[in-house]
Design a protein that fits this description.
This protein is α/β, with parallel strands linked by helices and 327 residues long. It folds into two domains: 176 residues, Glucose-6-phosphate isomerase like protein, domain 1 (Rossmann fold); 122 residues, CBS-domain (Roll). Helix content is 45%, strand content 16%. The protein is built from 14 helices and eleven strands. Strands 2-1-3-4-5 form a five-stranded parallel sheet, with helices on both faces. Helix 6 links the parallel strand 4 and strand 5.
Length: 327
Amino acid sequence: MPSFVHTKENYIASVGEVLETEAKAILHYKELLGDEIIQAIELLLNCSSHVIVTGMGKSGIVGKKISATLASTGTPSFFLHPAEGLHGDLGMVTEKDIIIAISNSGETEELIKLIPSIKRIGAKMIALVGNTYSTLSEKSDITISIGKIDEACPLGLAPTTSTTLTLAIGDALAIALLKARNFTPETFALYHPGGSLGRKLLLTVEDIIQKNRKNPIASNRLGFKEVLFKMTESGIGAVSVVDENGLLIGILTDGDLRRALTSGIEMMDKTIEGLYNCSPITITSDRLAVEALKLMEVNKINVLPVVNEDGRPIAMIHIQDLTKMGL
């Protein structure tokens, strides 16, 4: 192999070659898809317990990612380290489980030693290998073989293209199962409550107002000065205006008060009648928090009264309450 000349152009060329090599391998494998893929998907789809992924070294690292993807997309899964399996962790395997064993050579010693116990337990095995005629392949119920792969490593030693292709196949299996199960964004959110998608699909207005319930209210007959004090005390910069029955009839913001004060009219001894917005945008507590955020963005407002089914204000949320929650 010729010596590498350290230039920016050569760095770009080197990275480009690796990406092209690995991309070609994935696209080539697409043309080789056969019945074994169908059989594997059907077996996994009918699994009534866990899909257990196992592998050593780089294959194990890839296996952990595949297992994590399966688990997050509706297929219960966990990773089993082969060496730990040989020393007691096989107790986690049941006859209802399916094992996905990953090994490019198909002869990884730790995996081969697991096979007799797995067979005795009764779990089914899918081999994800490079060598179709390997021990692992021959002992498995289904074999998915990537065949002999030219690694992107110029020495042909470091697993690169083979691990990328194996990972892509794992992703493809997980997504095929996701589609077969009609896995929805709402279901995905249940498994990712801490992520931004989970917050968008699960977090309600009620969750927001429970964190910091504020509900500044003023009668439409209340004086300007009293409302100013009430607004300042709440720290939200607005009050819900209600009639004598406690029903929401408007909203008054600090912007409305400033405009009134700069109008040149003495306001301190007057009521707020005629100053508030008589057509306020509102939301109920059972709606999604992301819907509240959208309402505020579309209408270019910073505060939003929360009302009950009778039209009485029960809280008021500020746009910062939503952004603090990561929406």
